[in-house]
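Thread title: Can someone regenerate the structure for this chain?

I was given the following input by a collaborator and told the matching structure tokens would be attached. They weren't. Posting the sequence so someone can regenerate them.
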Amino acid sequence: MDLGDAIADELALPVDRISLEMIYRGLYHFSVAHQKGLADDPLSYFTAPENQDLGIVKSIRKPSIRLIIAPFPERQKNSPDFFFSASSQIHLTTALQA
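Best answer:
Regenerated them for you:
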């Protein structure tokens, strides 16, 4: 957690944009680079531009958009059927005949 906070500070990003799971997975890559003498500090290793492919920084997701199913949306904005909503009832497509 402390390493993730330090990475966020170094990259000037909010902490919630840093993936702790990918830091954990990236520690293997750091240890291999350390054994080869290519890296000494995990903070500088994870913040280096050439190591951005480790996925430490989470991508920004698109906001969810509600699906409009009204045939004439400009005339039916206040209608209860304006947005798609899943039915709460489960409809069976087949049934056993007694």
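The CA atoms of residues 65 and 77 lie 16 Å apart.
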